Amino acid sequence: MLKIYTYKNCDSCRKAIRYLQSNEVAFKEHPIRETPPTKTELQKMLQFLNGDLRRLFNTSGQDYRSLGLKDKLPSMKEKEAFELLSQNGNLVKRPFALSASWGLVGFKEEVWREKIQA
Fold first, then answer.
1. Which of 12, 43, 52, 54 is 20 to 30 A from 83 in CA distance terms?
2. Which superfamily does 2-117 belong to?
3. What is the pLDDT along the chain (118 residues), one digit of tens a residue?
4. Is the overall model pTM greater than 0.90, yes or no?
């Protein structure tokens, strides 16, 4: 079953949930701030994102800016990044959707359609 991490005030998250519901996709929703993805889930997502660590981060978020991650991220080790992300759901790009065979961050309907219908 698809596992999706969302934030209630996030427009992209609401669009993703509406899309899943309208296409009758079974999913389990998790609040990303209260229960961020685990390090194992982050590692799995990173593989689906072809190792692009930056794509795991909510680069437009206040926490990202206040921690100065724009400058730190290029030299950051995966272990350190996973530690930050697994402890602070505000840092994670959302929605964060993970299935057994694919993973997506952010919501672009055409990309989601391609993955879900595959």
1. 12
2. Glutaredoxin (3.40.30.10)
3. 999 999 999 999 999 999 999 999 999 999 999 999 999 999 999 999 999 999 999 999 999 999 999 999 999 999 999 999 999 999 999 999 999 999 999 999 999 999 988 6
4. yes
Name residue, tokens 């299935």: 99
| CB contact set of 37 (below 8 Å; sequence gap of 6+) | 5, 45, 85, 86, 89, 92, 96, 98
Helix (H) or strand (E) holding 103: strand 103-105
